[in-house]
Amino acid sequence: MADPRVCVLRAPGTNCDLETAHAFELAGGTADRHHINQLLANPHLLEEYQVLCIPGGFSYGDDIGAGVIFSRQLRNQLGDAIHKFLEGDKLVLGICNGFQVLLKSGILPGGSTTWPPAEESEPDATLTWNLNGRYTALWTRLKVASSNNVFLRDIDTIEMPIAHAEGRLVVRDESLLQQWSDQQQIALQYTGEADQPVSHDVLAYPQNPNGSTANIAGLSDPSGRVLGLMPHPERFLFATQHPQWTRLRLEGEGAGMKLFHNAISYFA
Ligand SMILES: NC(=O)CC[C@H](N)C(=O)O
């Protein structure tokens, strides 16, 4: 089979598209970066791709809330193209600002089961300001909590950096947590030390860097083919990007590459 094709979709203010496309290429995919206006002009463009990735950054300057404007473009102007994509055997990844876009558009948490969301529907969850009220950038330790998300296959714990101001996940109703848990949708949780069990009790800063409900750092759709996460796997492609790579004697690829390998090998 030809290399899987990845559409890295950017908007004005996106700033992680280059390294994200690079990560997919290192994993063996063919990645194109497209401006949202190219897709608005020709929504059929999306049909050429197996993976849609919305990378990190500050789309539209985070005006009126991080990811809000970009998410409205997907929902109001590209509803049909996204619907077709979600229905196919394809993958969607949203990193940081991309996660904000997936959640605020309604692609997450339901995926194809709830897309397109009804105009008047209340979102199940959103990402809002960190509890500390600040843009926060640090390395976090994460536990994979979903057994069926494609991007997280064969990963148990992983370290990745976060860098955001609006990364605190809040839910409309706490009963959703049980539903998500049952459907394997809680994909990633911030955790403490390696052997510490993860719980839904909110950990203190810096383990949980933003105060997210149930320490949630990433969500999956029920099919396991959509992932949104606040940490940046594309900032850990090489061992030397880890702050303690010498002390830990890390070599070769960074652990973040695993997510990109998993995505590409899904199509093998
Ligand atoms: N690194 C990013 O994608 C930035 C995320 C986002 N716009 C925030 O600060 O909340």
Automatic annotation (TrEMBL):
Signal peptide: none annotated. PROSITE patterns: GATASE_TYPE_1. InterPro entries: Class_I_gatase-like, PRibForGlyAmidine_synth_PurQ. Gene3D superfamilies: 3.40.50.880. Pfam families: GATase_5 (PF13507). Keywords: ATP-binding, Cytoplasm, Glutamine amidotransferase, Hydrolase, Ligase, Nucleotide-binding, Purine biosynthesis. One of its GO terms (cellular component) is cytoplasm. This is Phosphoribosylformylglycinamidine synthase.
